[in-house]
Design brief:
Distance between the termini: 32 Å
Largest sheet: 9 strands, antiparallel
Number of strands: 9
Helix content: 10-25%
Low-confidence stretches: none
Order of helices and strands: EHEEEEEHHEEE
Shape: globular
Structural class: alpha+beta
Mean pLDDT: 94
DNA sequence: CCGCCGATCTTT
DNA sequence: AAGATCGGCGGG
């Protein structure tokens, strides 16, 4: 399999452009990896749905930093979710990775996700995929472009990607009108349809 | 298959 | 007091 390196400039764009371009790319840790099939854009302090909306805080520090770094946050008191920072430093834009098609390390993923009854349940949600890949708070700030980083993003040789659908984002009370979610419509690993 | 609800704790 | 979630449970 041919693997192309992604440049820093890939992320120096609006998250609404980066997000759909991430579909089909591979998110990888040492133990496991999966192809991205669902993403959401969060556009910094102008976006009421973004953690950065209320300005810079200790939690959102990484979002206000350089593009191409991982923003990992703790959700509902028990889950971790991962974003990749976009635009340029200080703009606090990011793309949330919401679902993966498991590709490598299926055994480890099943061990880490005992609640998953079927393999498509392993990575079909932002917190599920972090658990499956072993991503947690210690990975906040990791450079996804550094091949020595614990969490990496790579672009494999292009594959035939299914039809891409667009919708509103999931789980928000503010900014629900914005259609900033993209997913591979026929993929069994997406967190949900529509 | 779908909807409801509780878990659990950080952030506001 | 709410939250960028998940999974178990009960009903259809």
């Amino acid at each position: 399999m041919t693997v192309e390196a992604i440049g820093r400039s890939f992320f120096e764009r609006p998250p609404q452009e980066v997000a759909p371009d991430l579909l089909g790319m591979v998110l990888s840790t040492d133990s496991a990896a999966g192809r991205i099939v669902e993403v959401e854009a969060y556009d910094g302090f102008d976006d009421p749905g973004s953690h950065a909306y209320r300005g810079r805080t200790p939690r959102t520090e990484i979002m206000f930093g350089d593009p191409g770094f991982l923003y990992v946050y703790f959700s509902y008191g028990m889950h971790w979710c991962a974003n990749v920072v976009c635009r340029s430093s200080g703009e606090a834009a990011a793309v949330l990775v919401r679902a993966l098609a498991p590709e490598r390390g299926l055994e480890v993923m099943r061990d880490r996700r005992p609640a998953a009854r079927r393999d498509p349940d392993l990575c079909s949600g932002p917190a599920k995929l972090c658990a499956a890949l072993g991503i947690s708070g210690e990975h906040n700030g990791a450079d996804v472009l550094d091949d020595k980083s614990p969490v990496r993003l790579v672009a494999p040789a292009p594959i035939l990607l299914g039809e891409v659908a667009q919708s509103t984002r999931i789980g928000l009370s503010a900014g629900r009108e914005l259609r900033w979610r993209w997913y591979v419509s026929d993929d069994p690993n997406v967190s949900r349809r529509s």
